[in-house]
Design brief:
- Strand 1 and strand 2 form a beta hairpin.
- By secondary structure, the chain is mainly alpha-helical.
- The chain is built from 3 helices and 2 strands, in the order E-E-H-H-H.
Amino acid sequence: MYYKFNSITQRLTGATANAYTPQGLRPAVPPVSPPVIFASPTKLATEAGSQVQYLGVNKVPDLQRLFQTSDGVPVHLKGGLIDKLLYRTTMGLTIGGALYCLVALYFAAQPSNK
């Protein structure tokens, strides 16, 4: 026997087989596939030619030379002044946040005065 939920009486009631539609399930509808956004290339292979054109200059060899030199400077500081500022700001915020957490924990551990 089939049952269905009666929303008025808030109970299960008997139902016939053809009236059985469980809540939460929808009839099977074949999904419609979304349109393909990048279906066609922006340039045809014949337009591009045999050479590949890059948008900029390849900076990888220069950066490899910069970062692979053994001059005693850590890698995260080899970028110059901006790297030093970012490093010191991050360290300051980290230490300040840790101290703030410890102070807040200390005050939270104190008994309240009533």
